[in-house]
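#structure-requests
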Amino acid sequence: MTEVRRVAWPAYEGMEWDAMHFLQGIAGTLELFHRSTLAFQKAAGEVTGHPAAVFQRIDQAGYKLPIDERILADTDTLMVFGLDHLVSEQEATSGEIEAIREWLKRDGTCLLLGPHHDVGFTEDMQQRQLEYKHHGDALVPRQQRFGQYTRSMMKGLGVPVLNQYGLRPAVVTGTKQIAPLTINKDLDKLGLLNGVTTFNFHPHLPHYALTTDDTKSVHVLTCQPIDLDRPHPFTATGNTEFNSCIWMPPNGQRAGHILLADSTIFTTLFGGVESLETFWKNLASMPLASGKQAKKTQAVA
């Protein structure tokens, strides 16, 4: 929290953030994230009629809670957020992957994976500095790599996507408002983007790169325009947008859907809440739209 307070000054100078009232270490920054998802949990609960349960796979005390049938038995939508640093070397176990694979054979299920950014994944120090200047966030160092756990889960489940970079979204000229999404409406068969215009302005969002040419198995639903006034290796090769929401429709034995969207889309830390709430409700109503009675939404961080 010392670093958060320094960079975001004077946002966290109130009494409610001091050592007597709030966690001051790394646990405090995690608590900020958990608090910022309360609005999403409320919206999901209103749509489904069930409270959204939240789990930490490894909690602050170091206890592990693997994903298994205890979580999956009465879950329609499982959201797994990848905020683990690569240096923590977390990997999805074979038991977790098999449990999710079996769960996805059930109609009306949806797995949402949210691996976060991968900033500075090179040994080239000049490129790290370029990426750092691009996102402009003093809280994020020149190398910060997230998502080994979600990456291992994607590999185990055959999800042909890799989270890359940490890219700064473009804004509407003359404002601080994030530029509208490019939405592939013809591919949005589930109506997830109905009424949605933007996600949120987070200064270092991942590009979800496709690692397959099979356009039938995986669809890019949204792309986010990039701030081209700030040089970056990704834009230097001609890219002007990054993939921000991916959908894999049911395929073969898998009756459930797989989505990829960054964890920050489900928080209120970075603005754009009205459009986000529409997206949240569209996502929460997916089981209803498929004709299945809605059960619970579960989130694992």
